[in-house]
Structure formats: structure tokens, C-alpha cells
Amino acid sequence: MSTKTDQKRFILPCFFFILFLCVLASINEVRLDSLLKFGQCVSNFSSQSDQYSTSENSINLAANSSDSSSDEDIRILIGIPTLADQYQRRHFLRLIYGTQSPVGAKIDVKFVFCNLTKEDQKVLVALEIMRYNDIIILNCKENMNKGKTLTMFSSLPEIFNDTNEQYPPYHYVMKGDDDTYLRLNSLVESLKPLPREDLYYGYVIPCRSMDPFKHYMSGMGYLVSWDIVEWIRESDIPRKEFEGPEDKVFGDWMRNGRRGKNRYNAKWSMYNYPEPPTTCTHELWPDTIAVHLLKNQEKWIRTLTYFNVTANLKPSKMYHIP
Ligand SMILES: *[C@@H]1O[C@H](CO)[C@@H](O)[C@H](O)[C@H]1NC(C)=O
Ligand SMILES: *[C@@H]1O[C@H](CO)[C@@H](O)[C@H](O)[C@H]1NC(C)=O
Ligand SMILES: *[C@@H]1O[C@H](CO)[C@@H](O)[C@H](O)[C@H]1NC(C)=O
Ligand SMILES: *[C@@H]1O[C@H](CO)[C@@H](O)[C@H](O)[C@H]1NC(C)=O
Ligand SMILES: *[C@@H]1O[C@H](CO)[C@@H](O)[C@H](O)[C@H]1NC(C)=O
User: Fold this and answer.
1) Residue where one domain finishes, among candidates 51, 68, 85
2) Is there a single domain that holds both residue 219 and residue 248?
3) How does the protein associate with the membrane (predicted)?
4) 66 alpha carbon to ligand 2 midpoint, in Å?
5) How many A from CA of 33 to the centre of ligand 3?
6) Phi, psi angles (nearest 5°) of residue 261
7) Are residues 19 and 86 in the same domain?
8) Ligand 2 centre and the CA of 67: distance in Å?
9) Is the Cβ atom of 256 under 6 angstroms away from ligand 4?
10) Is the same domain home to 57 and 152?
11) From first to last of its 322 residues, what are the pLDDT tens digits of the chain?
């Protein structure tokens, strides 16, 4: 019939193909950049499609897709303290977190360490950053219980102080651990009903206690709201006491500074791996946010198997996994 219908038939698949390319492209970008890029893609397309005067649809789509993935999402930064030389561990944790896609949240996992000390690190770590952009190098000398946590939290407001981005850059910051398995969807679900201010969240120590005010949240992974991060940067209280077990010291800051009026004890959704059993352990069970003390490969494998992490692997002619 007329060439007009043909044109329409041609335009519609083109539009979806371009959209698909845009989505693909944005997935590979840093999350922050991806929205911008997606918006650009769509606007690039709609300026093209304006020529054909049928851009209503694309504008609608664009409006919806940017709404759904920006304003309401919970933004969480998970900082995992590690050492520059722990290349294998970072590789493994990237697999663990890169294969989870939490709904209703934007979660950035970053590896945190102090100043580089060796020549080869300058190349290897730089390559990692070029590929993954998930590393924060603090201005400090490597240490575990001599203020690295303080340096991390108090550096974040400046690192993420981009006036062109949303404020706060993250609603919550979690200090993670490289032997903790976090299930991001469960974490997000548990955070949804909670306040976004003055929140101190985790697995309360001592292990037998269920009272989030006694005494502090375990280093397996504790989370605070962004206002507390800014308070740590500005207050004298953390600077007066930062030596000692970092999780306990953090709890002291909260108590002495009267912070964390909102507290949430995620026990027994967070727990230590069942073997060897102690008062801090729990059996693996479905209602899990975090499993801690995954000190060897066997424990990781058992945990990942229990949670069916690889069950949805797509069939393909390229491989066969029994
Ligand atoms: C969109 O177009 C602008 C200008 O034409 C260009 O700079 C930009 O890279 C394009 N964006 C994408 C994602 O193609
Ligand atoms: C966009 O969202 C509105 C309201 O949420 C909905 O009514 C509309 O159908 C959506 N449009 C598209 C193209 O998904
Ligand atoms: C860390 O490195 C920076 C830049 O190279 C340097 O200015 C700073 O003094 C170093 N800090 C420590 C604690 O060594
Ligand atoms: C953030 O940037 C603004 C403007 O550039 C500056 O005034 C402010 O001091 C910065 N804050 C931090 C914590 O670096
Ligand atoms: C894992 O999959 C099995 C079999 O489908 C199911 O019975 C089990 O409940 C799943 N486990 C979890 C933690 O979802």
C-alpha cells in the first residue's frame, strides 16, 4: 500500500532496537552515569523521531523509565574494607554482588583501602579501577583497628559531594566485611519501612542480646543513615576515640554522641555461619540478610548452594553444568 505504513513498520522496531541498545549500554556504565546516558539516548532518539512526527510514545516511555529508577529508590553504599593486594577476594565479591539485582534500590559496592605501598599495585589497582570503578583509596596507612573506619566514614561526604547529583548521595552507608555474604534484596526489603534519618542498623553484640541499644552492631555489616555519616565527619567525639575493635568503637560514638535514636536489630536475619556453633551462629534459613564468617571456600559454596544462587542459570549450547 502506501509507503507511509511501510515507514511506520520500519520505525517501530527501530525504536525498540535503539531502546534496547541504550539499556545495554547503560548497564555497563557506572549506575550514576547510566540514568543520564539513558536520558540522552532517548532524547537523541526522540529528536530523530521528531522528523517523523510520532514522538509522543517515546516521551511517555522516557518519563516513566526515569521516574521508576531514580526518585523513590533507596540508595545504599556498601563499603567493604580490604587490602590492596586482595585481588582474588575482590574478584570473588564482584561475582557475588554483580549477579544480584535488587529491586527498588541502587546499591554501590565499593572496596576500601589505604594508600598503595607497592609498585605493582599502581598498575594493577589502576586497571581494576578502569574496568570496575569500585575502589576507594583513603588517605591513610593500612590498619584495621586504628581508625580506618573513621577515615572511611569521614571521607565519604567529600568524596560524594557532587552538587549536580541527588542529595544525599546515599540514604544509607553500610560498612561491610569481606567474609560476609549479603543478600541485597533482603537487605533492601528490611530497610524499606525504616527511617532514613538517625538510623543505626545491624546485628547487635553481645550475641545473646536482642536489644539494639545494648551494646553495638557487629562488624559483620552495620549500616547508618547519611546524616550520621556527616556527623562523624564533623563531630569531635569520633576523633577522641578511634582505637580498638572498630565495631565496638563505632558503637561508643553512637552512644557518646547520642546518635542512632532509630535502631534496628537485624538478628536473626544476620548471623554467623552455623559451623562451629556458638551463641552467635544460626542455621542457614530463608529469612537471611547476611551470613558472616565465611572463612573458606567450602563455607561460601554451601551458603551459595543453600540460597539457590545459580539455579536460574540460562540454558545454552555453550556450556553444560550438571
Ligand atoms: C546524544 O547526542 C549528543 C549530541 O549529538 C552526543 O554528544 C551524545 O554522546 C549522544 N548520546 C548518546 C548516548 O548517544
Ligand atoms: C506511565 O506511567 C503512567 C502512570 O504510572 C501509566 O498510566 C502509563 O501507562 C505509563 N506509560 C507507559 C508508556 O508505560
Ligand atoms: C597517602 O598518599 C597521599 C598521596 O600520594 C599522600 O599525600 C599522603 O600523605 C599519604 N598518606 C599517608 C598516611 O601515608
Ligand atoms: C561540598 O561542596 C560545596 C560546594 O563546592 C562546599 O561548599 C562544601 O564545603 C563541600 N562539602 C564537603 C563535605 O566537602
Ligand atoms: C532452593 O530451591 C529449592 C528447590 O527448588 C527450594 O525447595 C528451596 O526452598 C530454595 N531455597 C531457598 C532458600 O529459597
Assistant:
1) 68
2) yes
3) Single-pass type II membrane protein
4) 12
5) 29
6) -65, -30
7) no
8) 10
9) no
10) no
11) 455 556 666 666 656 766 666 555 555 554 545 444 544 544 544 444 444 433 344 333 344 444 445 567 999 999 999 999 999 999 999 999 999 999 999 999 999 999 999 999 999 999 999 999 999 999 999 987 889 999 999 999 999 999 888 999 999 999 999 999 999 999 999 999 999 999 999 999 999 999 999 999 999 999 999 999 999 999 999 999 989 999 999 999 999 999 999 999 999 999 999 999 999 999 999 999 999 999 999 999 999 999 999 999 999 999 999 8
- Asked whether the bond before 292 is cis by omega within 30 degrees of 0, the reply is no
Q: Is residue 322 part of a domain?
A: no
Residues 137 and 279 in one domain: yes
| Same domain flag for 112 and 152 | yes
Region of residue 136 (left: phi > 0; alpha: psi -120 to 50; beta: else): beta
How many domains does the chain fold into? 2
159 lines ligand 4 (CB under 6 A): no
- Does any domain span residue 19? yes
Domain of residue 116, residue span: 74-306
Does the beta carbon of 139 sit less than 6 angstroms from any atom of ligand 3? yes
Residue nearest to atom 1 of ligand 2 (CA): 64
Domain co-membership, 63 together with 88: no
Q: Whose CA is nearest to atom 5 of ligand 1?
A: 44
Which of ligand 2's atoms lies nearest the C-alpha of 60? 13
* Residues 34 and 137 grouped into a single domain: no
Counting other chains too, the contacts that 142-147 makes at CB distance below 8 Å and 24 or more residues apart are: 142/83, 142/84, 142/113, 142/114, 142/115, 142/117, 143/114, 144/81, 144/246, 145/243, 145/244, 145/245, 145/246, 145/249, 146/242, 146/243, 147/242, 147/243
> Could you give the CA distance from residue 100 to residue 23 in angstroms, rounded to a whole number?
17
Q: Is the CB of 43 under 6 A from ligand 1?
A: no
Do 25 and 91 share a domain, yes or no? no
Asked if residue 55 belongs to a domain, the reply is: yes
